[in-house]
Amino acid sequence: xxQQLDTIQADALAAIAASADQKxxxxxxxxxxxxxxxxxxxxxxxxxxxxxxxxxxxxxxxVARKAVTEAIDAKLVELQExxxxxxxxxxxxxxxxxxxxxxxLHPLTLIKDRAVQILRRMGFALADGPEIETEYHCFDAxxxxxxxxxxxxxxxxxxxxxxxxxxxxxxxxxxxxxxxxPPVRIIAPGSAYRRDEIDATHLSVFNQLxxxxxxxxxxxxxxxGTLEYFFRALxxxxxxxxxxxxxxxxxxxSFEIDIKLHAKGQEPKWIEVAGCGMVDxxxxxxxxxSRGDEVFDPEKVTGFAFGMGLDRLAMIQWxxxxxxxxxxxxxxxxxxxx
Length: 338
Known about the structure:
This protein has helices spanning 2-18, 22-33, 38-44, 54-87, 107-121, 135-138, 170-179, 220-235, 281-291, 310-318, 331-334, and strands at 125-126, 132-133, 164-165, 184-193, 205-215, 241-248, 251-261, 269-279, 302-309. The radius of gyration is 35 Å and the shape is elongated. By secondary structure, it is an alpha+beta fold. Helix content is 41%, strand content 19%. Strand 6 (241-248) and strand 7 (251-261) form a beta hairpin. It has 2 domains: 2-87; 107-337, 2-Layer Sandwich (BirA Bifunctional Protein, domain 2), CATH 3.30.930. Strands 1-4-5-9-8-7-6 form a 7-stranded mixed beta sheet, with helices on both faces. It starts with a helix and ends with a helix. It has 11 helices and 9 strands.
């Protein structure tokens, strides 16, 4: 039996050495080490040997299997080296290389990172929430009445389940206050979705950054000072900013913020970039009822909230005249930011 193993090993090593390519080598491996291979069959025959012969036979079998396996591995390396040499045959190594294109961050990523950096320095922490929201978190908890236009199917993307694609990241404010206790100072960057008509300043999917500060004795002056500092830190000390009275269901009083856009080849114009206001006491009352405690009692805390479009901030930062350029994936446009 030992002589039989020596013969099998010799035949296997000869077949391995004669293998001209990887397919032939694999066929050899199967022929000797596969389920029906010669060496596998020899191993199965050990059960028929007398017990006193099994140890020696098993040792010889292991030696043969190891020798065949190592020979196959070595031959595989040898064949691969041959293939590698063939793959570079005919290549002129003196030719100049092709230019490697340099990548870069998208302008929306650049403006978001810069905005977050400024607000983090001002003490705001990052918060996050789901993009598929409930009506409660997106509207009800934010004091939005049932007949508000934003709740209409013409303005909002609804699912059959009744959930919706969030129309703003204000829902993150509610989810944060459901678990936290004052003082709360958070920002929530992320995507928002509305059935807006797509034009030079509107998209149906856009990027928003919301902010919330709730504590004792927060005043309107704190809101105005925070946002004026933020926008001038972002765009420069000469940035022109204006606050216009507005209405939002979840803030009172409310304002929209415009910044003058200087686009190349066009007259400067005001562009709306943010909405803001003092958190409506009704929001705190609803939250207190939902939580079952008084940590957000409107008699004890006040706060301000703001939300801004990152797409619009990018337009102002780089004088982009059409918001659609940010989603066209035109490398001729994007490479200037790399």
